[in-house]
Specification:
The protein is of the alpha+beta class. It has helices at about 5-55, 60-65, 125-160, 160-175, 190-240, 245-275, 285-305, 325-340, 390-400, and strands at about 70-75, 85-95, 100-110, 115-120, 285, 310-315, 320, 345-350, 355-360, 405-410, 410-420. A hairpin with a 3-residue loop joins β8 and β9 (about 355-360).
Length: about 425
């Protein structure tokens, strides 16, 4: 939900609550004022009756004084204490066929030595009419509030928040590889200016940190390769000299460790480049052709390990992926499928326009297959593998394709790379 939409909804909710309370209060204020006016009118009517009676004039109370209705005079058996009572009463309304609330004013008066009870009642405005008038007024106010809120929302979203949206667009398009910070632009709003300056300083710092880290990784990888190459060369020279069988075994072990260190350095450097999006997708790659060519390279390796390959590769499947990354996926998956297979085992490769599947026979796993995507995680801890192959595959699949999934079922290890977004399982 957008910020301005949430603001409008909160504003309208508060408006409805306030109008509801205001309407309730308004009803009683209006009714009180109407009842007060009726009270004074009825008191005046009673005073006129009292005056005429004191003058001894004869009159018909239903025509002379009241316009025809709602005045009653009763003589009391003895003089009474003069007072006035005001109250509400329910009177049957013949036309509406229901009881209606009326104001009733009663007075005790002593006229010419006799006590009288004079009462009159009526309603200037009915309660239903007051309720209807208040409701209509509040609905009109609410409608104007809604129109005003929407208008303010359009203005705020279209004009006031324009610098904020512009800053968001710049942040979304910011790329570390381009080494261009988000430049702060002056706006007429203090908070947006502070935000823009903060974003500018953060992007400058991020670019500086990225540059330093990239240089350190490249330098460390490059500098590490040099002593490893020297050590490897010296060991090769040493292996050509007369050695005992035990000494030769130590040299072979050292050579294997050096090769592993070299692969580890290159793999970590590669992971860093992938995480930093240093490989652009580039032009469209014919994945079908690349896999066919790669299988030719591994064919002898497959035969030496007494394995067989079954392939179902759709023609001309294209993806937006750097060729080096595609070859890296194929190399890692085929190496895993060969190394972690069984004698006389099988490898199946299937490619469609949506998925790329590499499956192989192999031993059961003691760990969750998905955990093998973690760095340095291996199914067999005694394996000479450095444990980064599947991690590299996952990084490439997550960042440049649509993800990867690893399943084990009935002795088959299946790695499925999704080329397009599809529902998994």
């Amino acid at each position: 939900m957008k910020l301005i939409t949430k603001f409008i909804l909160i504003y309208l909710l508060v408006t409805v609550i306030v109008l509801g309370i205001g309407g309730f209060i308004s009803y009683f204020i209006i009714k009180g004022e109407v009842d007060k006016e009726l009270k004074w009118e009825f008191l005046e009517r009673i005073d006129r009756v009292t005056y005429l009676m004191e003058e001894g004039r004869e009159f018909d109370p239903e025509t002379t004084l009241t316009g025809g209705q709602n005045l009653q005079i009763h003589q009391l058996p003895e003089p009474a204490e003069e007072r006035v009572d005001v109250s509400d009463t329910l009177i049957w309304h013949d036309y509406m066929e229901q009881y209606e609330q009326n104001v009733k004013v009663s007075a005790y008066r002593n006229i010419n030595g006799n006590g009288y009870y004079i009462t009159t009642y009526g309603a200037m405005i009915e309660s239903d009419d007051i309720t209807e008038a208040v409701t209509k007024t509040l609905l009109w106010i609410l409608a104007m509030q809604v129109i005003g809120a929407v208008g303010i929302g359009v203005y705020v979203s279209g004009s006031l928040f324009r610098p904020f949206r512009k800053t968001l667009d710049k942040i979304n398009s910011f790329r570390l590889q381009e080494k261009e910070p988000v430049v702060a632009e002056a706006t007429g709003i203090r908070e947006f200016n502070e935000l823009n300056h903060f974003v500018e300083s953060m992007t400058i710092k991020a670019i500086s940190d990225f540059k330093n880290l990239k240089e350190f990784s490249e330098n460390a990888s490059h500098e590490l390769q040099t002593p490893l190459a020297i050590a490897k060369g010296r060991l090769e020279l040493l292996s050509e000299t007369p050695l005992t069988e035990e000494q030769y075994g130590h040299i072979q072990s050292l050579e294997a460790s050096i090769k592993k260190c070299s692969r580890l350095s290159k793999s970590l450097s590669l992971l860093t480049k992938i995480e930093n999006h240093e490989y652009n997708s580039g032009d469209t790659l014919n994945l079908s052709q690349m896999i066919e060519e790669g299988l030719q390279t591994f064919s002898e390796f497959v035969e030496l390990n007494n394995l067989s390959i079954t392939k179902h590769i759709a023609a001309d499947v294209e993806v937006n992926l750097h060729p080096a990354l595609a070859e890296m996926i194929l190399s890692n998956l085929l190496q895993n499928a060969i190394k972690h297979n069984v004698d006389g085992g099988e490898i199946q490769i299937e490619l469609t326009d949506r998925t790329w599947v590499v499956a192989n026979t192999g031993p059961e796993l003691d760990v969750d297959p998905s955990r093998l995507f973690e760095r340095f995680r291996k199914g067999d801890q005694n394996s000479p593998s450095i444990g980064l192959g599947l991690s590299i595959v996952k990084q490439i699949a997550d960042k440049y394709l649509s993800g990867v999934e690893y399943t084990v079922k009935n002795g088959w290890h299946t790695l499925t790379i999704y080329l397009k977004d599809v529902k998994q399982g």
